[in-house]
Amino acid sequence: MCGRYVLSKPGDVIAETLESLEGFELVDSAASQIEARFNVAPTQQMPILRSTGLATLDLASASSARRSRSIELSSASWSFTSAKLNSRAAGKPLINARSETLLEKRSFATSFRQRRCLVPATGFYEWRPRGNRQPFFFRAARGSILVHGFCFAGLWQESVQRASSKSEIEFCIVTGKAGSSMTEIHHRRPVIVEPDGYRQWLDPATSEDRLLALLRDSDPPLERYPVSFKVNKVAYDGPELLAEVSEAPTNLTLF
Question: What distance in Å separates the CA atoms of residue 27 and residue 131, rounded to the nearest whole number?
Answer without folding.
Answer: 48
